[in-house]
Amino acid sequence: MAGNDEVREEAEQERMIRLPDGGWMPRLGQGTWKMGEDDRQRAGEVKGLRRGIAMGISMIDTAEMYADGRAESIAGDAIEGTDRNKLFLVSKVYPENANVHRIYSSLVRTLRLMQTDYLDMYLLHWRGEADLAEVVWCMEDLKDKGLIRRWGVSNFDVQDMEDLMRVPDGAGCCVNQVLYNLGSRGIEYDLMPWQRARGIPFMAYCPVGQAGGLVTQDGVSKAALMQDENVRRAAEKLGLSVVQLLLAFVMRHPDMAAIPKAVQPVHIEENCAAASVKLPEEILEVLDRSFPAPASKIPMEKY
Which residue among 28, 55, 131, 168 is least crowded, i.e. fewest CB within 10 A of its CB? Predict the structure, then answer.
């Protein structure tokens, strides 16, 4: 019989994802997209992130793009007074800043706004026109300088990942952050198996489709996620809210972290509870009726 320490370690690992460099990343984080856009909401947004930290959600994801750094500043205010060693902080750099001329000043600004000396993960926000060899060289240099612990990418499809693997040290990529939810399952066709074969995990942004408010670049509304009869029936059967069901759907993958945004305490508590939900196979079959897995290649959805 396992001792108490082993049981606790096993429970802890269920809340974490092993990264390619041997480190660990929380499976549930707090997103900050759309934060900082209204100064009247700032105090509530800071309070919401602090509430999440107090409930054990130690990962905060942000980006220099979000409200031109104001979301990073909100994250910085939220972590004030918290033991830095217990946090996992993520931010993202614009592709036009991901070069030897700009990335250092971009990161210094991010660190200042977030009130920290280093990031646990630094991501290239999207590929754009960035020179991948230069990006990787810079990321590795930032690691050597102790300014970041590790790096990854965001919004990379299979071809992008293959190109990344061809440059020196490209295999040092620790994560790919992508749009993924019940209504946006395109990565399941090819990107998911490609990354799994190489041990590269995912972070899912908009894991519940922005609570039904998401409209993708192709003009597809995700409001249907919240209103679909099969989704609502499945949530009711399990005694979950629809948001909890959608979040559990994403987090059923052991190599998929989720970073939902929440400000209100009730929503933060919902997210925390969803992290431990195990969806039965029959429930997944019900969800597939409305939102089936892709049968062919789908261009990567982004937002």
Answer: 168
Return the amino acid letter for 230.
N
Return the axis-axis angle of helices 42-54 and 70-79, rounded to nearest 10°.
50
The token pair at 121 is: 């993960």
Q: What is the pLDDT of residue 14?
A: 76
Distances (CA, A) of 218 to 127, 164, 180, 188, 233: 19, 26, 15, 19, 28
- Which tokens belong to 196? 């799994």
Taking the C-alpha atoms of residue 262 and residue 30, their distance in angstroms, rounded to an integer, is: 7
What is the tens place of the pLDDT at every residue in 95-132? 999 999 999 999 999 999 999 999 999 999 999 999 99
Neighbours of 237 (CB within 10 A): 13
Strand blocks (E) in 78-233: 88-93, 121-124, 151-154, 176-179, 202-205
pLDDT at 209: 83
Q: Which amino acid is at 113?
A: L
Phi-psi category of 293—alpha, beta or left, where left has phi over 0 and alpha has psi -120 to 50?
beta
The predicted pLDDT at position 222 comes to 56
Distance of CA 142 to the CA centre of its chain: 21
CA-nearest of 207, 205, 140 to 169 is: 140
> pTM for this one?
0.93
Low-confidence ranges of the chain (pLDDT < 50): 1, 7-8, 217
Cα gap 269→235, rounded to integer Å: 17
Cα angle 74, 244, 292 (rounded to 5 degrees) comes to 115
- Output the pLDDT for position 220: 55
Place of tokens 């209100």: 264
Distance CA 131, CA 139 (A): 12
